[in-house]
Amino acid sequence: MLTKRIIPCLDIKNGRTVKGVNFVDLRDAGDPVELADIYSKAGADELVFLDISATEERRKTLANLVLKVAEKVNIPFTVGGGISSVEDVDILLKNGADKVSVNSSAVKNPQLINELAGKFGSQCITVAIDAKQIDGEWKVHLVGGKVPTELNLFDWAKEVEERGAGEILFTSMDNDGTKDGFANEALARLSTELNIPIIASGGAGNIKHFVDTFKEGKSDAALAASVFHFKEIEIEDLKKELKKNDIPVRL
User: Fold this and answer.
1) Contact call for residues 6 and 249 (beta carbons, < 8 A)
2) pLDDT at 45 over 70
3) Is residue 28 flagged as an active site residue?
C-alpha cells in the first residue's frame, strides 16, 4: 500500500511565508527557505510553494527562491503561482523544482494541461483547484479564490485528469484556515471518481483531522500550513499518531 504523504504548504508573498483565513487576513509566518530546511529535516514527505501574489517579476523571484530551496532540501517540492506556459515550467524545473502546480491558467486555457503533461510528464503536473459551496454546489474559484466561475468541482477534476494531470490539490475555501477539519465528503467523492492522487487542503487544526481525511476522505496526501508554521503540530508526532491508526506513513 502506498504511504500517505504529509505536505507543509508555504504561501509566498513578497518573498515571505504568509498565512490567512478563508484566503484573507494574511500574517507573516517566516522565511520560506528556512522553513523548507526545517520541514525537510522534520520528516515532511513533500513541500508546496505557492506564490499567492504573482507580480510582474514573479518568474525571476520564484526561480531564485526555487534555487535556494533546492540547495537546502532532499524531498520533492512543488511550485505554483502565475505559471501559464511551457517556458515558465521549464525555468522552475531547471532551477530544482520537482513539480509545478497550475490553477487559474489551466481553467482559462485547459489545453495548457495537455501541453505541460506532454512536455514534462504527468508526474510533474499538479492541478490545484480552489472551490467553495454555493447553493449546495461546489464551484471552482480563480485568482487566489477571488473570482468565482460556473465550473463544477467534480466535472473540472475529471477533465483535469483526462488532460494528463498527475495529481489534484483540492483546497476547500470554506474550510481554509478555520481549523475545523478537511472537506472529507468532497474529498472522498474526488478520490472515488478519479484515478489520480488527491491532496487534501484547507481546514487542518489537529492531528485527528489528518486521521479523518485519510480514513473518511480517502485522501492520498494532506497539506497544511499554519499548524506546522506556528508549531501547533509537530510532523513527527503527527506521523506516529497516523501509524497508530493503521495509516501507512514514512517514518
Assistant:
1) yes
2) yes
3) no
Among candidate residues 11, 88, 176, 220, the one labeled active-site is 11
93 lies in some domain: yes
How many other CB atoms sit within 10 Å of the CB of residue 72?
A: 17
What pLDDT score does 60 carry?
Answer: 65
Q: Which residues contact 14 (CB under 8 A, 6 or more apart)?
A: 53
**Is 220 among the catalytic positions?**
no
Please give the pLDDT value at position 178: 87
Q: How many domains does the chain have?
A: 1
Domain limits for position 56: 5-244
Distance, in Å, from the CA atom of 92 to the CA atom of 115, rounded to the nearest integer, reads 16
Q: Looking at residue 177, which CATH number applies to its domain?
A: 3.20.20.70
Q: What is the pLDDT of residues 133-186, one digit of tens each?
A: 999 999 999 987 788 999 999 999 999 999 999 999 999 999 988 899 999 999
Catalytic residue, candidates 51, 88, 130, 212: 130
How far is residue 153 from each of residues 16, 133, 149, measured CA to CA in Å? 30, 10, 10
Residue 163 lies inside a defined structural domain of this protein: yes
Joined together, the cell numbers standing for residue 150 give: 460556473
pLDDT in tens, 225-250: 889 988 999 999 999 999 999 999 99
